[in-house]
Design brief:
The strands form 3 sheets. This protein has a 9-stranded mixed sheet with strand order 3-4-5-2-1-6-7-11-12, with helices on both faces. Strands 15-14-13-16-17-18 form a 6-stranded parallel sheet, sandwiched between helices. A 3-stranded antiparallel sheet has the order 8-10-9. The protein is globular, with a radius of gyration of 23 Å. The protein has helices at 18-32, 91-94, 106-123, 141-148, 177-182, 187-190, 202-209, 218-223, 234-239, 273-288, 309-321, 334-346, 359-368, 384-390, 401-406, 430-446, 448-459, 466-480, and strands spanning 2-6, 36-42, 57-63, 72-80, 83-89, 130-134, 159-164, 172-173, 195-196, 199-201, 212-215, 244-246, 296-300, 325-330, 351-355, 371-374, 394-398, 423-425. It is of the alpha/beta class. It folds into 2 domains: 2-250 and 465-480, Glycogen Phosphorylase B (Rossmann fold); 273-459, Rossmann fold (3-Layer(aba) Sandwich). The longest helix is centred in the first third of the chain and has 18 residues, at 106-123. 38% of the residues lie in helices and 18% in strands.
């Protein structure tokens, strides 16, 4: 099968969040299973090709028509880990300082990207079977193919799949942008095909026109069909519910592997974790003035409201006053940064705060911590809880989205320590969050055998991409019948 991923970011060249991880890891799994995978993404200024053995080579050059505009496009190609990367180069749109997103003209930038990627499909020297687009940035491509190229011999038979990673970002534009940026008729707005909240939504366009739609966990798929959990998409997704499915993301189990991780203090596995994982905690605590005999609760996260900042702070305050250590690594909302810095100022003997991001410290925290706090307000899938389990750090989660699908929560009444690999609660409530933290402290301090079983279960949890990739291949095959 010839699969083309169209994504605004993809490891190892660009990443801001989980999308970059998923596009790369899922593609790599397809290659393992014998499929041909091409990845189309922008050529950002920040990409450093010097650390790779091969530099990209220019393959194509063409103009991209966007109403009166005809910006140029250069396409560069690089093979990496048996995957074909095609980079869309336009310095005006993508050679900018700063991040990948957040510019005033993001709507125009990614309209250009979607148009350029669609034209590239005609240039590729093989028959494309599936075009898999991700989020709002490429969401208009299924619409472009089915409206503008319905009779094109090279493009008319291509099947499309849209994956919704974050429903908060819908790609809003005004009505005239349909023609101005995408060369599409404004009747698509007038008849409601791409209209959402009285604006054009490129994400809704993908929902309307893609042959199949997925999101990143089964529970999140259900939540997106409810009024409360859909972020405004429930009606459109209910209409497409027969073509909509949730597939739980996997994780890169090579990058995150306590047996071989060179950044942690001491490597360990399921057979020696009692000794060697504890040595990681001893070293981390020694470096940062914490007591290694106390349980260590960690947070590695963007500090945004979506992540449940008020619950995290309440849990941290409780933990540090009830005989535990708390460590946080992240940046985001200024008030949250100040809040955690304030906690450190009041209780430095039990608190570690790093505002910013360090991959090295993140790995050390996963390996050193006993528990990993992730009480999100909503979480389509989540990666932190999976990484934590991989390192034997027990997640404390609110059971929403992918957190519910990936964590088996300990229940003392059911005595399920033979399968449980974390702790959880349902209601978004400070009281419930603190109860969860108290339960974890109780197990750590008073139920040593139970704690050991839970850690062992976490270490042996399979979050590889194998099963998820097979489900995606089934989805692809169903569209080709």
């Amino acid at each position: 099968m010839n699969i083309v991923m169209v994504t605004s970011e993809c490891l190892p060249f660009s990443k801001t969040g989980g999308l970059g991880d998923v596009a790369y890891s899922l593609s790599k799994e397809f290659v393992k299973k014998g499929h041909n995978v091409s990845i189309i993404s922008p050529l950002y200024k920040k990409i450093n090709f010097e650390k790779f053995k091969a530099k990209p080579k220019k393959l194509y050059e063409y103009d991209v028509k966007m109403n009166w505009r005809k910006p140029s496009c250069e396409v560069y190609h690089l093979v990496h880990e048996k995957m074909d990367y095609f980079f869309i180069k336009n310095d005006y749109y993508f050679s900018r300082d700063g991040g990948l997103y957040g510019f005033y003209d993001d709507g125009e930038r990614f309209a250009y990207f979607a148009n350029a990627a669609t034209l590239l499909l005609k240039e590729l020297p093989f028959k494309v079977d599936i075009v898999h687009v991700h989020d709002w940035q490429g969401g208009m491509i299924p619409c472009i193919l089915r409206v503008n190229y319905w009779n094109d011999k090279d493009l008319k038979n291509i099947k499309t799949v849209l994956t919704i990673h974050n429903p908060l970002f819908k790609g809003y534009l005004n009505r005239d942008s349909l023609y101005d940026l995408y060369n599409l008729p404004t009747s698509l707005f007038d008849d409601g095909s791409v209209r959402l909240e009285n604006q054009v939504s490129t994400l809704k366009a993908g929902i309307k026109f893609a042959h199949k739609i997925t999101t990143v966990s089964p529970t999140h798929a259900f939540e997106l069909t409810t009024v409360e959990g859909s972020k405004g998409l429930w009606y459109d997704l209910v209409l497409r519910q027969n073509d909509f499915v949730g597939v739980l993301n996997g994780m890169d189990q090579v990058e995150f592997d306590p047996k071989h991780d060179k950044t942690i203090y001491r490597n360990y596995n399921v057979n020696n974790f009692e000794t060697n994982k504890k040595l990681n905690k001893i070293e981390f605590c020694k470096e940062n003035g914490l007591d290694p005999e106390l349980p260590l609760f960690a947070v590695v996260s963007r500090l945004t409201d979506q992540k449940g900042l008020d619950l995290i702070y309440a849990m941290a305050d409780f933990i540090t006053h009830e005989g535990g250590n708390f460590a946080v690594l992240g940046s985001g909302e200024k008030y949250a940064e100040d809040m955690f810095n304030g906690l450190y100022a009041r209780n430095s003997k039990h608190t570690y705060v790093y505002i910013g991001y360090s991959d090295d410290i993140a790995h050390k925290l996963y390996a050193s911590s006993d528990f990993f706090i992730m009480p999100s307000a909503f979480e389509p899938c989540g990666l932190g809880q999976m990484i934590a389990q991989r390192y034997g750090s027990l997640p404390l989660v609110r059971r929403t989205g992918g957190l519910k699908d990936s964590v088996i929560c300990y229940d003392s009444e059911r005595n399920n320590d033979d399968i449980a690999n974390g702790f959880g609660f349902d209601d978004y409530s400070i009281v419930e969050a603190i109860k969860c933290a108290a339960q974890a402290l109780n197990v750590y301090n008073l139920k040593k055998d139970t704690f050991k079983h839970l850690v062992k279960n976490a270490l042996t949890t399979d979050h590889s991409w194998n099963e998820s990739a097979d489900k995606y291949l089934e989805i692809y095959s169903s569209t080709l019948k």
